[in-house]
Amino acid sequence: MLPLVLTCPRCGQENPDGAKFCNACGAPLSAASPAGEERRVVSVLFVDLVGFTSRAEKLDPEDVRAFLVPYYERVRGELESHGGRVEKFVGDAVMGVFGAPITYGDDAERAVRAAFAVRDWAEDEGLQLRVAVNTGEALVALDASPEHGETFVAGDVVNTAARLQSASPVGAVLVGEETYIGTRGAIEYRPAQPVLAKGKEAPVQAWLAVRPIAGIGERPSAAVALVGRDRELGALTRTWERVVEESRSHMVTVFGPAGIGKSRIALELAQVVAAQDGRVIRGRSTPYGASSPYSAFGQQVKQVARIFDSDGADDARAKLTEAVGSLAGSAAAEEHAPNLAVLLGLDAETEIADREQLFFSARVLVESLALRTPTMLLYEDIHWADGSLLDLLETLASRVRDVPLLIVALARPELLGERPGWGGGLPAYTALPLEPLSADSSRELAVQLLAQHDDGDGRAATVADTAEGNPLFIEELARCIGEQEVKGLAELPTSIRAIIAARLDALPAAERAVLVDASVVGRVFWRGALAEMSSQDDLSSVLGSLEAREFVQREAVSRIQGDQQFAFKHGLIHDVAYGTLPRASRRTKHAAVARFLEASTDVGQSHEALGQHWREAGENDRAADHLAEAAQQAGRGWAKPRALSLYGEAIELLPEDDPRRRSIRMQQAVLAQAVFHMQHEDVGRGPADDGSSA
Ligand SMILES: Nc1ncnc2c1ncn2[C@@H]1O[C@H](COP(=O)(O)OP(=O)(O)OP(=O)(O)O)[C@@H](O)[C@H]1O
Ligand SMILES: [Mg+2]
């Protein structure tokens, strides 16, 4: 029997079966490590040393190696610390991949930041590099191990990245169009000469990445008025006012998925607080690159003490002592400033045996701040925070009393996966979930945003309907439509796809797999169909968990007797899940769904669905028969335009010489006549039926 190994999704290290954390990088191994092949949007990075080949010619092989090994290690280190993975080393070139096997939702930005980091390091070392990043869809072999020379991503995106790299000016980072579109909010770009690439008809559009313009994991806010959050902002404002009036502390956690508007509502609250002479101090946790486990708290203390990252450690400690002294007196400064220095990572030497001591010093500082001025401490993105920071927040929230302090934490729902008991047992705590915007508010936001592009017509409705109440998605869709980057909305912008893909990747592997299977059945699916498609033994509990996470919902009625019916809560999740399937597995899975429908439904009622599933399964012959049957039924039910289009679908599947074509053509002709008459003569005869209720 083969020994069982678990491949780390972060670094590719193989670990013994049953390991909970990676032996090499410490990443948790229980998170989804999807297996098999998938289609994914990835960002590919190529780095090449300029002039290395000619230099290597003159060197001894041992010297070449002595030079290359540390270089590889450094590049690998930068890629991995940004969430990427090395696919291969070819001579002196390195190819890295971001967005697989795990998608974080901001993979293109991570790739560009990693490119900057590698480039900057090389400059310091006196090395010259060419770097390029390109983003696009690829076929990913999720269980390949690149360490053993197995190829892990394949697609045009890789070739184009290589071409961009060879066209990149020395010392520059050149990116392709999808990378540019997906990251331009966070990175400044200059247009570059399009790149002529072998085997490509059109030149490849390219941009030079200049520098980051937003913090890591931060999103510059679009300047449109707030819509549809009166109730939530009202509740937050009232909490703040009570904190001030009663001179008490309180903690609120605002929950919601990426882009729903947590940062935005916190910003609005901060403005209210500032207008009422309160003090707002903000700290954020980042997905990578944090300077210390208490980084978010550290940022706040540094703001209070006016410490800059450019200050030397001695200066920084002096400023800290002075700040604590002026807030809490010199005795307190002597006792607490050294502990705070440890929390901030300003003191690498002192070992403090007892964490309580550190937390007590933090508490003294916070209390003396709030005692002077009512204070709101804002913690953004605590789902990325280290457990130690969460402990500190809970300690502050439970121990600080009788001073006007409002702690506001913002979190995506996955926080509760890591910390199911978050906030539990605190004396003054509120959880505020942000729901999707209502249809009206979505529409209002879309209209506002499209107006910026001189284009507020009917497209606002399309944007609002597609975005499912997520303001970020509304912004992205409006921008794409405004700039004509996608034709209509046939394609989902890569940025939205990436954010949703990241939500899928955060699921345990079994749940993710079931969700992908379900996407093949359709927006509505049945438990029995899933049982037909996979050997998941614990289907009920997996479905229960997906329901609790609000990916799917159980429906009260079922079209299939005795079989529980479910629906995807969001169409976007369905579409993205389905989009991960490579063509080959799509075919086998659609065939399984078709078999399930044949076995469990009256075929007479399922012709259309059967036709569609058999078609996707590659069984054109069967599919055509079902579609023709469905067309006949639709025609009998006076859904004549629908019948016409179903006949059209059927005919497309039949070979030129198939005798069935003739009879279908005749039926089509009769129907076309009937439709013509319906439209021109029978107006007013009854409600129009476009058949879409099928
Ligand atoms: N109610 C609203 N009205 C208008 N614009 C909004 C609203 N809510 C959010 N937005 C805008 O939508 C975008 C996404 O919102 P925001 O950055 O606050 O999301 P978030 O929940 O903090 O996401 P993340 O988890 O990624 O940090 C921002 O540009 C924000 O200004
Ligand atoms: Mg945010």
Verbal overview:
Strands 3, 4, 5, 6, 7, 8, 9 and 10 form an eight-stranded mixed sheet that branches. A five-stranded parallel sheet has the order 12-13-14-11-15, with helices on both faces. A three-stranded antiparallel sheet has the order 16-18-17. Mean pLDDT is 86; it is low at 684-694. It is an alpha/beta fold and 694 residues long. Helix 9 (313-328) packs across helix 10 (330-343). It folds into five domains: 1-30, no CATH class; 39-212, 2-Layer Sandwich (Alpha-Beta Plaits); 230-433, P-loop containing nucleotide triphosphate hydrolases (Rossmann fold, 3-Layer(aba) Sandwich), CATH 3.40.50.300; 439-501, no CATH class; 507-601, Arc Repressor Mutant, subunit A (Orthogonal Bundle). Strand 13, helix 12 and strand 14 form a beta-alpha-beta unit. It is built from 26 helices and 18 strands. It is globular, with a radius of gyration of 29 Å. Magnesium ion (MG) is lined by residues 262-263, 380-381, 410.
Q: Which features would summarize this protein structure in a list?
A:
single chain, 694 residues, alpha/beta, Alpha-Beta Plaits, Rossmann fold, 5 domains, five-stranded parallel sheet, 26 helices, 18 strands, globular, disordered C terminus, binds adenosine-5'-triphosphate, binds magnesium ion
Concise description?
The protein is of the alpha/beta class and 694 residues long. Strands 3, 4, 5, 6, 7, 8, 9 and 10 form an 8-stranded mixed beta sheet that branches. Helix 9 crosses helix 10 (330-343), helix 14 crosses helix 15 (459-467) and helix 15 runs antiparallel to helix 16 (471-483).
